[in-house]
Amino acid sequence: KYEKIWLTFGIGCLVVFLTVVGVSAFAAGQQPPSCLTTIDPEKVDTTPPFDQPGLVKKGENEYELNIVVAAFSFTPNAIEIPKGAKVTINVTSKDVIHGFQIPGTNINMMVEPGYVNSLTATFDEPGEYTILCNEYCGAGHHMMTARIKVV
Ligand code: CUA
Predict the structure, then answer these.
(1) pLDDT at residue 84 above 90?
(2) Mean pLDDT of the region 48-55
(3) Which one of 11, 16, 113, 151 is CB 3.0 to 4.6 Å from 93, fit for a cystine?
């Protein structure tokens, strides 16, 4: 009869494990990075919304964050986001392929010249976050960072 208890316990663990895997896969699948919009990389500075990069309020607790990426910088490179804000991040590159990753979150996308890549994230945890380029892009690659402050 102890075997039966352990068997039930084992199956229970398996069910919990599979549920967690399933739910996290589903949650991650909710916001795949997209690259549907095209943009002329030479005209980024004059193409909205990238002619005025930065955080734009779109609604109650909803924001759009437009970032211009070029070797070897993110513009703007110091961003303040209100805690709990739902932010749609749009990025594009003026030159080569860069990366856009925020360690400690699931934000990680490619930045490609000619395309606008987007994802939506909610910043619930106050603190300082670092944006990193995780795609080798040249001599200044390792210095390519920016800061996000969630307040
Ligand atoms: Cu940009 Cu590495």
Answers:
(1) yes
(2) 96
(3) 113
Q: Separation of 104 CA from ligand 1 center, angstroms?
A: 19
Please tell me the residue having the least CA distance from ligand 1 atom 1: 98
For residue 119, what pLDDT is reported? 96
Residue 41: CATH number of its domain: 2.60.40.420
| Pocket (CB within 6 angstroms of ligand 1) | 72, 98, 133, 135-137, 141, 144
Give which of 93, 118, 98 is closest to 32, Cα–Cα.
Answer: 118
CA 112 to ligand 1 center in whole angstroms: 11
pLDDT, tens digit (0-9, with 9 covering 90-100), for 93-114: 999 999 999 999 999 999 999 9
Please state the domain count of the chain. Answer: 2
Helix boundaries (H) for 30-104: none
16 CB contacts (<8 Å, ≥6 apart)? none
Domain that holds residue 24: 1-30
CB atoms within 10 A of CB 97: 15
Atom number in ligand 1 closest to CA 96: 1
